[in-house]
Design goal:
- The protein has a single domain (about 10-155), classed as Electron Transport, Fmn-binding Protein, Chain A (Pnp Oxidase, Chain A).
- The chain is about 30% helix and about 40% strand.
- It has helices at about 15-25, 60-70, 105-120, 125-135, 155-160; strands at about 25-30, 40-45, 45-50, 50-55, 70-85, 90-100, 140-150.
- It has a seven-stranded antiparallel beta sheet, with helices on both faces.
- α3 (about 105-120) packs across α4.
């Protein structure tokens, strides 16, 4: 169903991919957009319990696309350094394929948004206040991961 990685020797382990997802602050969501054009958008997210969560407004291009086709891709770049002498990039990245669902369960949304908030600010009171303040305009999306791959520059493998 999903393609095998061509440069499999550069593949990151599943645990390395999960660590990158847990530690990264932002990624790029890809959806099937209007008129068959891909639509990508950078966003903040949280990874928890094998899923990716993000929030957004209650209307817009992302949500229209998810409603039309729940299949999405999500990419995170963990390392991105240019080695000018070797004319190459030292990188680590993760690509996720999955299904996006607009969440409706109030308790699950609160839980996801609390995890999200605490990823960026460890002040529980501040996070709870922000969730309350934004609640009426808040939409939360959950991505259930079906396939995950990670890759790193061959030069990084040689260093490790």
């Amino acid at each position: 169903m999903f393609r095998k990685m061509r440069r499999f020797k550069q593949r990151l382990t599943n645990d390395e991919c999960i660590t990158i997802l847990k530690n990264s602050k932002s990624g790029v969501l890809a959806v099937s957009g209007d008129d068959g054009y891909p639509y990508t958008v950078p966003l903040n997210f949280v990874y928890a319990d094998g899923k990716i969560y993000f929030h957004c407004a209650k209307s817009g291009h992302k949500l229209d696309a998810v409603r039309a086709n729940d299949k999405v891709s999500f990419c995170v770049i963990d390392k991105n350094e240019v080695d000018a002498e070797k004319l190459t990039t030292l990188f680590k990245s993760v690509v996720v394929f999955g299904r996006a669902k607009i969440m409706s369960d109030t308790e699950k949304i609160k839980s996801a948004m609390t995890m999200f908030g605490l990823k960026y600010n460890n002040d529980v009171t501040a996070v709870e206040k922000e969730i309350q303040r934004e609640w009426n305009g808040l939409c939360c999306v959950e991505i259930s991961i079906e396939h995950i791959t990670g890759k790193q520059a061959i030069e990084l493998m040689k260093k490790e």
